Amino acid sequence: MHITLNIWRQKDRNSQGGLVTYELSDVTPDMSLLEALDLLNLGLVRTGVDAIAFDNDCREGICGTCCLQINGRPHGPLKGVAACQIYMRSFEDNATIIIEPFRAKAFPIVKDLVIDRSAFDRIIQAGGFISVKTGGAPDGNTLPISKHTLETAFDAAACIGCGACVAACKNASAMLFVAAKVAHLGRLPQGQPERKQRALGMVAQMDSEGFGACSNTYACQYECPKQISVDNIAFLNSEILRAKIF
Amino acid sequence: MAKTISLYGSSIGQKIVSAFTGLFLCGFLVIHVSGNLLLFKNDGGVSFDHYAGALSSSVLIRSIEILLFAGFAIHIFWGIRGWIFNRRARPKNYAEYNPSESSSLFSRIMLLSGSIVLFFLVVHLKNFWVPIRFGAQDLSDYDLVRIAFQSPLYDFFYVFCLVLLAFHLRQGFQAAFQSVGLRSLWLKAINMVAIIFWLLIPAAFAAMPLYFLLAKGGR
Ligand code: HEM
Ligand code: SF4
Predict the structure, then answer these.
(1) Quick check: A206 contacting B, CB < 8 Å?
(2) Packing angle between helix B11-36 and helix B152-179, nearest 10 degrees?
(3) By CB atoms within 10 Å of each CB, which of A95, A237, B59, B121 scores lowest?
(4) Which residues constitute the domain of residue A209?
(5) Are A95 and A3 in contact (CB under 8 A)?
(6) Which residue, judged by its Cα, is nearest atom 7 of ligand 2?
């Protein structure tokens, strides 16, 4: 295959940056998109050009590091997968692929496609944990949790903190991420003591990081590689309502 | 010290205010459309005039009117404030952005559809509410409406704005329940009741000018 890549290049946080076009041949359909980028970088380095910086780690779709905006969509054209799980067979021969970093005020660009997502870490630090010592893994069914609660908490726990929800949202809102964490811990018995403070603290941190508010377009749920449901956002909203009013 | 938020200043509080005021305005639409259905009663406007007269002389209605204006003001203020807040969260746009894949058009143009409804509201108040409420006219209330609706241009504007109200509520009604945390619990019921708000109510309002223009030939 032959592809044309339009890739965002930016020297550092404060420089201007722009799209640069690269032609890449010798691409095979069973290569992943990240491998195609590796191939491109190999060629660039050999000609003395700075390699394109992009974040990646597990390349198995479970770590949430490979945050790329591919042809206008976070994690590219497929539903329910991370960018590293996009293979070149998803594109036509001679396709043009535009790759940009996720864009949000709260995710400043570090270099090229690499963004600083430490805002998410600070949100977690503001309450996304439980402080009690829970000991080792308990015996099965010692804590009574209903099937429904268990399943919804577990679904919320699947969030990998990739930030695609922010990237997809027209308001660059982090609500799905925060909601997933609040709903995961807030539904389980261990999360109850800090339940109120968790929701309030995480939302306060989210707002101070410069993320937008949710306006219920539900784009986040569509683009989330782990298919986290916006029902979690409803849960978060009611947590805040309850904490502040009732 | 542990962080906290003020309800009205936070991103979530903003949604909750939009939702409660939006639902309050939806309630107003129900009452407004029910009364105005009297326009269709074929009695030369007697019932409608009676109803409109009773409304403008009732102390209760006048007090509710103040609440209603406040409801609109808060809804609009918070809507615009939220929109500005949200714009700031992405100072640099994507070169390529594909939101139509992941979200509905209605959900992305709430400020536009709301603003057109607001413009409509101003024209509507000037044409109907001011003369009926302050009564500086010889025409009966029914005739006032009838004559206004004889203008095809006005009717076109009227129906166009109602289509945008329909768009606003297509997204807004279910969204309000999401904002207060109830949508997933009552999803089926909400989607059914939503049809009343985004389809039946705007359609009933739109039928009024069309009725005077087409069926009654202006009589
Ligand atoms: C009869 C008139 C109106 C009704 C019944 C109505 C109803 C609603 C409802 C139910 C919502 C959803 C709230 C939520 O997402 O939680 C909403 C949102 C909104 N409304 Fe209205 N509205 C009306 C008029 C207006 C007007 C005149 C404006 C003027 C600008 C406006 C601007 C907005 C905006 C910007 C939002 C979106 C808020 C967001 O996306 O976060 N609305 N409306
Ligand atoms: S909610 Fe989904 S899109 Fe958002 S950070 Fe978690 S896994 Fe990524």
Answers:
(1) yes
(2) 140
(3) B59
(4) 117-131+145-245
(5) yes
(6) A159
